[in-house]
Amino acid sequence: MSDKIIGIDIGATKIHIGLVQDSKVTRELKFPTLANASRDEIINNLIHKIEEVDDPQVTGIGIGVPGLVDEEKGIIYDLTNIPSWKEVHLKQHLEDHFKKPVMITNDANVFALGEKIFGDGSAFKNLVGVTLGTGFGSGIIINHQLYSGTLSSAGELGNIPYLDKTIEDYCSGKFFFSKYGLKGGEVNFLAEKGDPKALKMFEEFGFHLGNALKIIMNVLSPEAVFLGGSVSQSYEFFKEPMENSLDSYPFKKVRDQLIIQPSKTSDIAILGAAALVVSYQQQRAEIT
């Protein structure tokens, strides 16, 4: 990829903007989201920051957000932890200002597409990217294409009822905090020191994650599942219990062929956002 593309990750607490060329982030900015500011203040601040990394050769802007998105119209609905963002026409605002195409989807879709275009996912026709952070999300690639569903909500498996709560309550950072009052990073720190309670927490987490992955296997049967998000950095501690949980999957041949691995791609949020533009450009090239 020789074109220059701007990738943006809008998080609940911070925004990360990067200029991407040749599969690398060559310039970047990180700054607070200003979650309690007005809608216009956040948009104007975002435009100002984009201008700092913009380049005349930029061919498009890709954005990942933690919320529902009308991808065609570029309207963001109910953005997580940003109260003022209700039905924000962000695509229109940015295209009017920068005169470049703007693509927007939710952050789990961005992760999956980033793995497909820039990561190890390029080897697979069908894959799922699962984000394990403060929440649980998943993006779906079918026949080499991102499948987003209505308002980019396909893959929101975290909302599925599980035990007394939901999958997200047992398969994200929420699990450690609600049950033990600790953040995932704190549990990882203790596990690295061999703390038996921390190792037990990851054993429980791996068991629940295995059950969540069995749902993905039953519905989508992907060739590969890539794990991202902060909790995935503790993969070594929950890998074995996760795999043990998967052993109860009834179709052994399918289970044996499934590849599960944490993402090895750095800057995946920015690269994934840029991948939205790459995918858009590829689709246009096929049409013409």
Give the gist of this structure.
Keywords: Kinase, Transferase. Belongs to the ROK (NagC/XylR) family. With 288 residues, the protein is an alpha/beta fold.
Structure, explained:
The structure is a single chain. This protein is an alpha/beta fold and 288 residues long. 41% of the residues lie in helices and 25% in strands. It has 10 helices and 14 strands. A 5-stranded mixed beta sheet has the order 3-2-1-4-7, with helices on both faces. The protein has a 5-stranded mixed beta sheet with strand order 10-9-8-13-14. Strands 5-6 form a two-stranded antiparallel sheet. Strand 5 (68-70) and strand 6 (75-77) form a beta hairpin. The relative contact order is 0.15. Pfam families: ROK (PF00480). Belongs to the ROK (NagC/XylR) family. Keywords: Kinase, Transferase. InterPro entries: ATPase_NBD, ROK. GO terms for molecular function: kinase activity.
| Structural class determined from secondary elements | alpha/beta
Number of helices: 10
Percentage of residues assigned to helices? 40-55%
Oligomer: single chain
Q: How many strand units? A: 14
Write the layout of secondary structure elements.
Layout: E1 4-10, E2 14-21, E3 24-32, H1 39-53, E4 58-65, E5 68-70, E6 75-77, H2 90-98, E7 102-106, H3 107-118, E8 127-132, E9 136-142, E10 145-147, E11 161-162, E12 165-166, H4 167-170, H5 173-180, H6 184-192, H7 196-219, E13 224-228, H8 235-246, H9 252-257, E14 259-262, H10 268-287
Parallel strand pairs: 1-4, 4-7, 8-13, 13-14
Antiparallel strand pairs: 1-2, 2-3, 5-6, 8-9, 9-10, 11-12
Helix pairs in contact: 3-10, 6-7, 7-8
